Amino acid sequence: MVIVAHNTSVNASSRQPPRVLGIFAHPDDETLCAGGTFAKYASAGAEVRVVSLTKGGAGQIRDASVATRATLRAVREKELDAAGKELGLTETRCLEYPDGGLSEIDSQILVELASELLSEIDPDVVITFGPDGFSGHPDHIAVGAAVTAACYERRSATSIRLFHCHPPRSRMLLRNRLAEWVVELATRFKGTKDFVRALWVFSREATALGYAGDFVNVEWFPSGSYLIEQGEAATMMYFLLSGQVEIRREGEDGRVRVVDRSGPGEFIGEEGIATGRPRNAHVVALDDVTSLTFLASDPVPIDGSAEQAQLVVTRSLPSGDQIDARVSTCIDVSDFVGHKIRAAAAHRSQYPIDPSMFADPILREMFGVEYFIQVLPERELHTSLLDE
Q1: Domains defined along the chain, listed by start
Q2: CA 299 to CA 136: how far, in whole Å?
Q3: What's the rounded Cα separation, in Å, for the pair 150 and 116?
């Protein structure tokens, strides 16, 4: 199977302007799954609309200053509108279905809802979740199944192109890119409290969804313990969340001298990661220390279903990334990564980040391509084993 980047010109559709419709479960799904693609097509002149079946009232609240449990639904509806403006969408819409309960609704009700949306908007292209739900979320799976069924019912009456979003399985290590970035800075990096929170959210979400191949965890080190020992191989990088550490260098004569101290908002161990050389000093906790720890790890399915993952046939890209062998379409959205990140930041209750906090080359490498599986129109059957 050849992966192709479909024509993004508005002339790709016989109707001008073409209509693109994304149907998802929660506000922010549109940005995570296809934000760059939506921005790219909107910029090219397409009418791009997004419908979220819920208002995301069961979601986490990662910034207590912007929402409470009582206000979260209204806040997230406004956040979707703000994200839509960043992506250039024609319209965003939140419906009233229960967050966390879509999989319990009679599937035919959801199919009928999707059919009504298709009849009303009459899109040329529909984007939704595949059977994996992009992240394994039951709401995502229920929405994807309903929209897919509705599109199949409609295909005989109108030409429609249906795409399922496909999560990446990147082998790029955020650990390495952050280390290279910090080492190249002219001055010592010290993140603000906002950066600490943003990095925590950004790294956990990016690795969970497959945009990076790290294992990211919060670790606790009691006072007096070693985070790093001089001479050991550099495999982990630390970002200090609380507590102070002391950097001690041991000479050939066994004498140890203190060379530096570090505290919250600072990276530890980045030099060894960036250079590939063994550790050149000890790092010892002076207080009880908590750290965001980055370690290379093979991507794991977000639902933890390793046995199920083994049943999925994958193919390797030149980058080493893994994608489902059924993937038909990759969209280069590198010029629209800024739109995607700003849209994510507009979902402040979920992603309390400042889009300018992170280096642009890192963001482009992580989010510069979005993958899809084309479901409709169905491919024609070949009549020969040898004909191309």
Answers
A1: 10-169+306-376 (3.40.50.10320), 174-212+214-296 (2.60.120.10)
A2: 14
A3: 9
Burial annotation 110-126 (CB, 10 A radius, 16+ → b, else e): bbebbbebbeebebbbb
| pTM listed for this prediction | 0.85
In the three-class reduction of DSSP (H, G, I as helix; E, B as strand; rest coil), residue 94 is classed as strand
Residue-wise pLDDT for 28-78, tens only, equals: 999 999 999 999 999 999 999 999 999 999 999 999 999 999 999 999 999
Tokens describing residue 155: 């295909």
Residue type (1 letter), 278: P
CA 307 remoteness from chain centre? 23
| CB distance 227 to 267 below 8 Å | no
- Give tens-digit pLDDT for 340-378: 999 999 999 999 998 888 889 999 999 999 999 999 998
Structure tokens at 164: 């399922």
For residue 207, give the H/E element and its range. helix 193-208
Q: Which two tokens stand for residue 385?
A: 């084993």
